[in-house]
Specification:
about 0% strand
Length: about 110
């Protein structure tokens, strides 16, 4: 079970993540706010930022830039978007692996 403070932190992190799908600036601002309030450690912030920056503003960019080629692609339009989401998760986990292997917490 989570404490109320942990639930608030999870909700705020979830909102920052969803916001980063729409706008890179809003997601970055919300992440900075989480870090400044002590809800994210430096290591968590680095993983979170890697997730956000890979395919930044994925929904907005996909719909605005991808709409020019939607009629010419041979797969359903959800497939490229699913690939973007998969690669975002992959990049965040690569970052997590590198940090767990090489990153030392500052005391």
């Amino acid at each position: 079970d989570f404490t109320p403070a942990e639930l608030d932190a999870l909700r705020a992190a979830g909102l920052a993540m969803v916001t980063s799908f729409q706008s890179t600036d809003a997601g970055a601002g919300m992440t900075k706010g989480l870090y400044d309030r002590g809800l994210l450690t430096e290591k968590e912030k680095l993983i979170f930022v890697q997730f956000q920056i890979t395919g930044a503003a994925a929904i907005g960019n996909f719909l605005s830039l991808g709409s020019a080629v939607f009629d010419s692609i041979l797969v359903p339009i959800v497939i490229p978007f699913a690939l973007i989401l998969f690669l975002k998760l992959f990049a965040a986990n690569v970052t997590r692996f590198i940090l767990s292997k090489y990153y030392k917490e500052v005391q």
